[in-house]
Amino acid sequence: MKNVDVEIYLSQLISFFDKNPNDFIDLIGSENKELFYEKVKEQCYKNVKNGEDATLTRNQLLEIAFSIKNKDKDKTVKVIDGVYQNTKFGKICLN
Fold first, then answer.
1. ∠ CA(68), CA(15), CA(1), 5° rounding?
2. In the chain, N or C: fewer CB atoms in 10 Å?
3. CB within 8 Å of 15: residues ≥ 6 apart
């Protein structure tokens, strides 16, 4: 069963990245668009099922991006709230 809020959010997200392809390349890379959108859709439906807003948080988007970029890596990436992100490369400041 489709959720209207999820479909609108996905449509807006796809439209944004179509208009700003460099932002998508910075986030994910030039490949894996379909995989990214599929994972976003799955997370949106999880949010709705848990009674939350359909839109993804910054941390959820980063977790999806890291999981796609590091799908062949053995280490996991932990996303923390705040300005600093812990990655396998060390702490990254999002300032």
1. 75
2. N
3. none
pLDDT higher at 50 or 75: 50
Q: Are 6 and 41 in contact (CB under 8 A)?
A: yes
**76 vs 86, residue with greater confidence:** 86
- Record the tokens describing residue 80, joined without a space: 């923390």
Domain range for residue 9?
A: 4-93
Type of residue at 76: T
Which pTM does this prediction carry?
0.68
Total structural domains within the chain:
1
Cα 62 to Cα 73: distance, rounded to the nearest angstrom = 16
